[in-house]
Amino acid sequence: TVYAPNLLKRQFNPPTYNTHWVGDITYIKSHQGWSYLACVLDLGTKEIVGYALSSQPNSELAIAALNNAIQRQRPNTGELMFHSDQGCQYSANLFREKLKSLGIKQSMSRRGNCWDNAVMERFFRSLKTEKLNPLTFTDHNSVVNVVEQYIRFYNYKRRHSALDYQTPHQKYNELKKAA
């Protein structure tokens, strides 16, 4: 079953912010088991605008990341598209109803096509290669601390060639000023 069409169609560079968000979930191993990170990335700024961590990879985790993004960004949800893969967290009734109740248009990658959500996948690759891979974690809290540190670094210090070597937050400020 396809729950939402691919409305994004790999258009990864919208002209403004808070109109095209992408989300996904990744996993991080600790000595006590797995931690799961759900992120929401704004395609206009490449900034991680929301995230949540949990020991369960369920639709509640995806909703927590979405809620975090909405609380931080305060977008006009009627003008917002949320794109993800077809994972069970994003195709669950709970998540789809949450988007519908907020007036957010849902878009989903084609089945098995990771390139349809390449910007989000690229963030996870950066997180793992630049920070997580050499580390070992004792428990979920140690994962949370390191991930939160990296997200702050990524948003406020890490320059991106795709943003003319600005940080995501600098891009956000530039777009906000132009609006």
What does this structure look like?
This protein has 179 residues and is of the alpha/beta class. The protein has six helices and five strands. It has helices at 59-73, 88-91, 93-102, 118-132, 140-156, 168-178, and strands at 20-30, 33-42, 47-54, 81-84, 105-108. The chain has a five-stranded mixed sheet with strand order 3-2-1-4-5, sandwiched between helices. The relative contact order is 0.19.
Structural class by helix and strand composition: alpha/beta
Task: Give a quick account of the main beta sheet: strands, pairing sense, barrel closure.
Answer: 5 strands, mixed
Distance between the termini: 39 Å
Global shape = globular
Helix content: 40-55%
Task: Tell how many strands the DSSP assignment holds.
Answer: 5
Task: Give the helices and strands, then pairings.
Blueprint (H helix, E strand, L loop, with lengths): L19 E11 L2 E10 L4 E8 L4 H15 L7 E4 L3 H4 L1 H10 L2 E4 L9 H15 L7 H17 L11 H11 L1
Parallel strand pairs: 1-4, 4-5
Antiparallel strand pairs: 1-2, 2-3
List the keywords.
6 helices; alpha/beta; 5-stranded mixed beta sheet; 21% strand; 179 residues
